[in-house]
Amino acid sequence: MSRGRWIALAAGLGGLALLLGGYLWQQDPDRQVASAREALDAHDLAVAEAGFRKAAALDPLHLGALEGLGWTYQVAGQQAAAEAAFQRCVEIDAAALGCLRGLASVKMGKGELSKAREILEGAEALDPADPKLQASRGLLELAEGEVDRGAARYEALVARFPDEAEYRVGLAEARLRQRRLEEALAVVDEGLTLRDAPTRTRALLSLLRARILVASVVGRIEGMRGQPDCEESATALRAWLDAADLAVTDARQTGVRLPTLNEVGRLVGRARGSIEDACPPRLDAPPAASN
After folding, report:
1. What angle do CA 172, 175, 176 make, to 5 degrees?
2. Nearest-5° angle of CA 51, CA 55, CA 57?
3. Domain range enclosing 46
4. Residue 67 included in any domain
5. pLDDT tens profile 63-101
6. Whose CA is closest to 268, among 229, 214, 228, 225?
7. Cβ atoms 105, 127 nearer than 8 A
8. What CATH number has the domain bearing residue 118?
9. Neighbours of 37 (CB within 10 A)
10. Whole-angstrom Cα distance, residue 195 to residue 245?
11. Count of domains for the chain
12. Sign of the CA dihedral 34, 35, 38, 43?
């Protein structure tokens, strides 16, 4: 056989190997799940759903596919579909922690806090040290008003995993509810500097930043009401609200569906109005300089 024909044959076999490799990849549910998880982290929900559904079609008992589908639907606000996926996963394996956490998340979303606690306590008996389970427990404690307990749980998680931005979301929320606003802002800003944070986590941190800044402003407005020299303070507070507006914009630009996003934007606007009410513009203020 001539050298040219050998080269052509080798090229043909190489192309066939690539096609075969691609086909085998498409038929591997584990790889489908891994790819779909990357899409979910990037908040590409359509791609994530398609990948998890493909994996579940290849292997209907694949726990990772069912868990991933559940979280994809939960993030999208489709609670019934999320609950069905998580429930099917738990029916296959009653010790599937990710799916138990998912069921608890659905129950929390429905306001069924006692049921969520029952699920999480059962899951904790299986693996008390699981960090994502501990984060779910902390979130439930915040929802139940046990803010200090939830804060302590998130403190421990951030200490264990300082490079994981998702645990800083819970800690910042706890600090906000404790009215420890400077600490809350520091936690958020540290989280936003961490590399490789999932898109949804960055969106949540940005929205938290806006909420913390608004809370900081509102807490200072009454103190300057009626003060003759309030304009300097008002100017500083307006700058904080400018930063809050920017944080809302950052959250919106991630493309993540956050139910409270528009409401936080309105809170910024109302805070601006409260500043003007507490410190009206001086009628005797000198006119702006002109060229």
Report:
1. 85
2. 115
3. 29-126
4. yes
5. 999 999 999 999 999 999 999 999 999 999 999 999 999
6. 214
7. no
8. 1.25.40.10
9. 19
10. 23
11. 1
12. negative
